[in-house]
Specification:
about 170 residues; alpha+beta; two-stranded antiparallel sheet; 8 helices; 8 strands; globular
Length: about 170
């Protein structure tokens, strides 16, 4: 009887612990840039690595990660993503890397991208990307600092209230 009671108690406590941790595992809708529920405007994030170019995905080949749906141009790319989504998902939740360095969450142009150290960075436009390319390491450092602060804050709030600790620009 004692072992059965311990087993039930363990399951109950495990369930309670799981419920307590669940909010920490959930992702805010502001943490991943989605339009119509789809990340990266439906572009295949694996193609940036395998083809060094953005390729439009197909709704027939999908996978979910961090609360967002990703589209892929092939089953093979979908399966690569599913095996290690963190390796292919864009930095800063798919928001503009330059924008993150500025303490904001800007939309992206999926064709304005760069893969640096096996990480995908997207920019708002080719014009913004040109500025970002002027100091990629500095802007990444600034964006990394800021993302830890702004990740779960809506851009509308960031536009009117810069959180403490946010840096502006390249570091």
């Amino acid at each position: 009887m004692k072992s059965r009671h311990s087993s039930v108690w363990s399951r109950v406590m495990g369930g309670v612990l799981g419920l307590l941790l669940l909010p920490g595992l959930a992702h805010s809708e502001d943490e991943v840039n989605v339009a119509g529920g789809v990340a990266v405007q439906g572009f295949d994030v694996v193609s940036y690595f395998t083809e060094s170019a953005p390729v439009k995905g197909d709704a027939e080949f999908t996978a979910s990660y961090n609360g967002a749906e990703y589209h892929f141009s092939s089953v093979a790319n979908r399966d690569l993503f599913a095996a290690d989504p963190a390796a292919y998902a864009p930095q800063y939740g798919g928001y503009c890397a330059f924008g993150a360095a500025m303490g904001r969450k800007f939309e992206i142009d999926p064709k304005a991208f760069k893969v640096v150290d096996n990480k995908l960075y997207l920019n708002n436009s080719k014009k913004v990307q040109k500025r970002w390319l002027g100091d990629v390491p500095g802007f990444i450092k600034g964006a990394d600092n800021n993302w830890a602060i702004i990740e779960s804050i809506a851009d509308a709030e960031l536009a009117s209230n810069t959180p403490e600790g946010v840096t502006i620009g390249a570091q």
